[in-house]
Amino acid sequence: MELTEDVKPIFTADAPFMTDADRRGGRILIHRGYRYVRSNTSRFRIYWRCARPGCGETIITNRFDINHSNPDIDIQRQPLGDHTHESDDNQICRRQFVDETTALIKSDPTLTIRRAYDIVSDRHHHSPDIHVHVPAFKSIRSRLRRARLAHPFRTYQPIRMARQITDDQGEIESSDQVEIRMDSLKLLVMNARQVVQVCNGGETCLTGDNMKSLAIIQQNDTDGVDIVVGRDGNIIAIDHSSVIQSQYGACEFDEVLDATNMCVIPGLIDGHTHPVWAGDRVHEFAMKLAGASYMDVHKAGGGIHFTVNHTRNASDDDLYNLLKERLQSMLRCGTTTVECKSGYGLDADTEIKMLRVLEQAKRDIPIEISSTYCGAHAVPKGMTVQEATQDIINVQIPRIQELMNKGDLQVENIDVFCDKGLFEVEETKSILEAGMKAGMAINIHGDELHYVKAAELAASLGARAVSHLEEVSDAGIKSMAEAGSVAVLLPTTAYILRLKPPPARKMISEGVPVALGSDFNPNAYCLSMPLTMHMACVTFRMSLEEVLVAATINAAKSIGRSATHGSLEPGKVADMLIINAPRWEHLIYQMGRHQELLKTVIKKGEIVHFSLI
């Protein structure tokens, strides 16, 4: 690339000059390798002294126009040569190099900052007339970034891209060509070291050995990786910087993020949470440490019933404020989409109150919520299992369906805690069939504490997902693999209740899509998916690649969103995390440090969290 006249270097041996940055303030004069600061001004002269503390050397010039692009500087009194220090050549050269590179960035908005640096440094290395110390890129990168942010990156010619038309199940029905408006786009993430797409072939989940094969675009010798996001919040393109620059028409971006030496992964998806409740159960933690089981606590009046009492007595505003704080914490931990259950009401009024609170959160908080009705979370006090089942089928589900039909509620899933002493297979089947008739997908607790054939039941009904599965059988695993039901595994629950871990390796080898959830609830208080992923690596013996798949594309499938979420592909929603680390694995490897590693959380192309650490 040819350098235009206005960005050619201003290095010179003897002639006094001011750099572009100094000219704005008019405070620094450079002459014969030394820097002088303006100390006084008269009608016709400017008096300068050496910028080094303790050096008394002075110089006098005419009073020139410091704002002029080429001020005519006339030395009226030369310095006496009494400097008490070495010349400022390196510092001057560094400053001049930055000015020249910055000018190039401003003049050509298609250049990345690294490319501009390389052009200027190559010019100086190969020019016999210029002998300059070239500063290291890292030492001036922050100044160049500021220049690029002040003059946003632009691209070349408009393109046409394929748009896929999908049905309600995410299956591709047809495709056509649509023109993308390139005059104004939402976001450019530029110059990333790694972009972990997870998958790039339109897969809706990954199973078996495919869970270990991630689609990753790495930077090459000359280019980082860029991601372009359209105004609708969907990804338009992902490729190396030079390719992105050559494919798009001149456009402006609402936001430009420089991800130099950083990694980008899809936003994390939490496949199982209970975030709407009042009344913590910190006192029960001591009971569990002393050896009490989940059912021991439950029979003693604790557990779910303790939380039910507090949740029934809480106002809508109380529940919303608690939920808001929890969801915002999840966002800061990298969760951009979350499955949220009711289940601490166990009666129609309170369950609906919880679902309404979730609807308010959908409107107010930049995290995507998949709502699940879980009225069969436990058997209410004073009722038998049969009475509770009839209340759910004949009272609760009809009332919820009526609100869904009016548009007041959007409930996607139905959940039942299917286990011994709670809702067993017969009751569970009746409730799930009623939920399916009301338009809800099956997403249940199954085979957590005892083997009751919950997995087999769920698979026979075409369940989207089954959670827990610590006690699942080989037959249950086979049934889930054949049905394509997702196993949502919950490391925090097995950890805090000291349960045997679910057979994750068996499920993966048999072809079951495995996802992860934090299971945030009063019993297992964990809002962090990175910590959940770390625990899955250690306690479930899953690989780093497998847990990332389980927390992205497979978790998206568990809530019916894998056609639009869970991977970084053109046409999908731009939910992304920028990790301040040279490899994406650091997010899981550095246990407990994820909030420092997560530089930026992006939801639908909007920056929803930015770390200043």
Question: Can you walk me through this structure?
Answer:
- This protein has 613 residues and is α/β, with parallel strands linked by helices.
- The protein has 3 domains: 5-150, no CATH class; 152-158 and 183-265 and 578-613, Roll (Urease, subunit C, domain 1); 268-566, Metal-dependent hydrolases (TIM Barrel, Alpha-Beta Barrel).
- It contains 21 helices and 25 strands.
- Helix 2 crosses helix 3 and helix 13 packs parallel to helix 14.
- The radius of gyration is 31 Å and the shape is elongated.
Provide keyphrases for this structure:
613 residues; alpha/beta; Urease, subunit C, domain 1; TIM Barrel; 3 domains; 8-stranded parallel β-sheet; 6-stranded mixed β-sheet; 35% helix; 23% strand; elongated; disordered N terminus
Name of the CATH class of the largest domain: Alpha Beta
Strand content: 15-25%
The structural domain count equals 3
Mean of the pLDDT scores? 85
Largest sheet: 8 strands, parallel
Predict the CATH topology of the largest domain. Answer: TIM Barrel
- Portion of residues in helices? 25-40%
Strand order of the largest sheet: 15-16-17-18-19-20-21-22
Number of helices: 21
State the shape: elongated
Intertermini distance? 37 Å
| CATH architecture designation of the largest domain | Alpha-Beta Barrel
* CATH homologous superfamily title of the largest domain: Metal-dependent hydrolases
Total beta-strand segments: 25
Structural class of the helices, strands and pairings?
Answer: alpha/beta
Q: In angstroms, what is the radius of gyration?
A: 31 Å
